[in-house]
Amino acid sequence: MTDKNALLQPDRGQKATSLHLVTKDGFAEWSKRLSAGQRAALAAQRFEGAAGETAIVPEGDGWFALGGVADAADLTSWCLARLAEVLPAGTYRLEDPAPGRALLGWVTAQYRFDRYRSEPAAEGPRVLLTREVRGIEAALAEAAAVELVRDLVNTPAEDMGPAELEAAATALARAHRAELQVTKGDLLERAFPMVHMVGRAAGRAHAPRMIELEWGDPAHPRVAVIGKGVCFDSGGLDLKPSSAMLLMKKDMGGAAHALALAQLIMQSALPVRLHLLIPAVENAVAGNAFRPGDVLRSRAGLSVEIGNTDAEGRLVLGDALTRAGELKPALVIDFATLTGAARVALGPDLPALFARHDATAEALLAAGTACDDPCWRLPLWGGYRDYLKSDLADLNNSPSNGFAGTIAAALFLDRFVPEGVDWAHFDTFAWRPVAKPGRPKGGEALGLRAAWLMLQRRYGG
């Protein structure tokens, strides 16, 4: 297995293959420095300098590599990713611009999920030398967080149930000397009734639980990070069709994002009091599964009529948000693979972002743009609160009119966040259906790095 920490190394003059970046507009001028034979080699490879193009150019007894980018003066996170995917194993030195945030893509491009392969890929690593020594640690930390999300989401539900999410949180707590508390069984039923009700049909093997981790100086601002941990979603008694169930191992993608963000916070010693909460359940079918029409009592005391058992994520998040709010946080951020409506509206690449405070939303949007992890704000439109009305209870978990499903889900969550608390909600896909440079098909972190950069800017990390 490749040592990810070895993929970026300080440039101390080691022997390395040269790597040059060019743009399509500047390629003709740049190529004048080449010999006729070298230009012929590029022509044979149909290299014109367009973004994403790569080529190998003979030079003496060796060769150098060439990559096309849109803007050599402003590299994105993914400008070096295609090169890291296709170049031969070896050590490279970028000769022209400083790599900047493109260091991330060099690492994430070499991610492989081979846990279930009998013969993992044998190709060696591509190592990049850089003089931006201070950028190495940050890039490796972010890449490790992204790859943690990918690993957790890519793992099938049989090997990534509530117990395995607890194990991941336990490992994180041990690594950073954090406090861990796990609530399950009879105590879970009393303390987090909606988490218990959603997860009880999964039985002992995948028993529900609330996972909480606390870390940092209590005198620092309290930041709660919450992740939806539905390890598999059958839809419950409102059973999903098989086509919709196929990807439901990824329904714990919110929990994966929350764990990864907590890792970044603790690893960097960000001056906050971190409160990580993961309601971990499997939404299964059994004789004791909760039913359409049932009325659940929440930790907040609100009663919830079940309009659809497949709208279970907002239920477990409701109890988690209530618990976080009890401790008076300065900021709450939650991640959830919550609604298909968000994907219809925004597609797979853009997480839907909701926030109570404009300043927080603007900070997250700006951070996402700055680090190539974009998100898109949708409104907490109060005019749709009537969609959540119930004839029996305080709330219905699933409006039947089919309108504004993503907004309605966010408004449901909003009822469980105490008034005045600064809260942001990411409805993320956590999956990439089609590979892009540095971003293979499969589990993916979407919104994670935007949240991380915003936290660094706000709390001075």
From TrEMBL:
GO terms for biological process: proteolysis. Coiled coil: none annotated. Keywords: Aminopeptidase, Hydrolase, Manganese, Protease. It comes from the Bacteria. One of its GO terms (cellular component) is cytoplasm. It holds the Pfam family Peptidase_M17. Residues 308-315 form the Cytosol aminopeptidase domain. Signal peptide: none annotated. GO terms for molecular function: manganese ion binding; metalloaminopeptidase activity. Gene3D superfamilies: Leucine Aminopeptidase, subunit E, domain 1, Zn peptidases. The keyword Manganese applies. Belongs to the peptidase M17 family. This is Leucyl aminopeptidase family protein. It comes from Novosphingobium piscinae. The lineage of its organism: Bacteria, Pseudomonadati, Pseudomonadota, Alphaproteobacteria, Sphingomonadales.
